């Protein structure tokens, strides 16, 4: 019996405790983990006039929390874009450790109120500095389940009416998610530049009067048409560029009309397109005026295109606004064109209203409201045509869009109105007559190829169009100054979002306590097993003696009988 006890003691004193330690260590490291990888896009980041926009932080390695349960910078908030408000964003961009927003599955299915809230949130995010890394994730069912799980865990967290033991059990058994985004370092792009392309329509010599020459044609008043390509929004993607599409279609149409022998032009047409819109304070126009100011020696007016079509419409309003810095006097060029524009809208549109909006230039503001203000400061008569009434409209900066067929239809209609009014003004044609009909009719085939234009330098599509229809085409670049840059872009790295399902920190403490208690019990059992065995042995020895004495007494009693 003693040999068996010694053998059992040797087992406990030998390798068994070490094996148990290894097993428990493996169990601890193999706690439930569910790695998932998702595509994410970093929020746009840029500098303008010394002000930082976007976030300068890229890496995230934090616990995921819902929009309603985060409370420290050690939490990364994972939520839907449609659930975030401006108030929430203001708190998150300063206090959270990170923010990941899942985009809607289909923006078209949202109600008008939600669309409006999204565009307002976009504008707020684009005009503020964020101290935390912000990423956008395309809609994904698995990611949506994780968001639902985080939110469900938050709403079903232990309440005050539960016992302390019940709360402890719920807390220990709960699951958590850990988020990891390896964004690397963010560095300024020293090769940042804004391309600006411009060209002009020179009157055909056949269209001039016999007494006129090409040199005389160069003396004709200039009408400048400008637009800007939107190359980014809240993240680096290409929004709808309806303004550039309208400019390129006008360029194509008037190049055909300008060289018709029966149409003697009264004006020269210039076209200007840059990659800098309202977000970059119209830096392209500013640079062009500094470099090629002589091109506007004899300018009739400058026509700027800005948000001609609402890419994400959530109202039933149907209007075209002419924005000016001061009300035009009667019988001036801008006043006459405004009247022609109204007549054209009445003839070619279904209920489109043309209205004038007057707003003074705020010279104290570093950011201009409209592009025409760049030219008005230089004393050039100018105006902006837009489908939005207020310069603060979030539609101007949204990256989302409605059904493209609706956008094409609206852009096509607006282009026809502007083209007819401009042709009536330039060629002194009766506004009741139609110019762009037959072979000159504006069709979807004219608009669609230009809807996909992304940048002036992208595939040379814009450059080829300018060189095809215009003369004296030039491309200039606005580059930031090395010492005091007016603008700066930042390099973007492709990153992945990794989500791991893990236990909370209190689970590790609880598991450590359980393992410690178990090892302590094993240690005490090993230390006191000999004494325990001796006590058990004594009890087993005493019982047989007592039993034998009982049998002897029984035999004595039987003999006496």
* Anisotropy-based shape: elongated
Work out the helicity level. Answer: 40-55%
Strand content: 15-25%
Instruction: Let me know the largest β-sheet.
Output: 8 strands, mixed
Strand order of the largest sheet: 1-20-10-5-6-7-9-2
Instruction: Please count the helical segments.
Output: 15
C-alpha-based Rg, rounded:
38 Å
Count the domains: 2
How would you describe this protein?
This protein is of the alpha/beta class and 561 residues long. The protein contains 15 helices and 20 strands. An 8-stranded mixed beta sheet has the order 1-20-10-5-6-7-9-2. The chain has an 8-stranded mixed beta sheet with strand order 16-15-17-14-12-13-11-18. Strands 8-4-3-19 form a 4-stranded mixed beta sheet, with no helix packed on it. Helix 2 packs antiparallel against helix 15, helix 8 crosses helix 13 and helix 10 crosses helix 12. The protein is elongated. This is Nicalin.
Provide keyphrases for this structure:
561 residues; alpha/beta; Aminopeptidase; eight-stranded mixed sheet; 15 helices; 40% helix; 19% strand; disordered C terminus; transmembrane helix
Helices and strands, with pairings:
Elements: H1 2-13, H2 16-29, E1 36-39, E2 41-42, E3 46-48, E4 51-55, E5 60-65, E6 75-80, H3 86-95, E7 98-102, H4 112-126, E8 129-130, E9 134-137, H5 141-155, H6 164-173, E10 176-181, E11 194-201, H7 214-217, E12 222-228, H8 242-258, E13 268-274, H9 283-291, E14 299-305, E15 319-324, H10 333-348, E16 353-358, H11 372-377, E17 382-386, H12 404-427, H13 444-451, H14 461-469, E18 471-478, E19 487-489, E20 496-502, H15 505-560
Parallel strand pairs: 4-8, 5-6, 6-7, 7-9, 12-13, 12-14, 14-17, 15-16
Antiparallel strand pairs: 1-20, 2-9, 3-4, 3-19, 5-10, 10-20, 11-13, 11-18, 15-17
Helix pairs in contact: 1-15, 2-15, 8-12, 8-13, 8-14, 10-12, 12-13
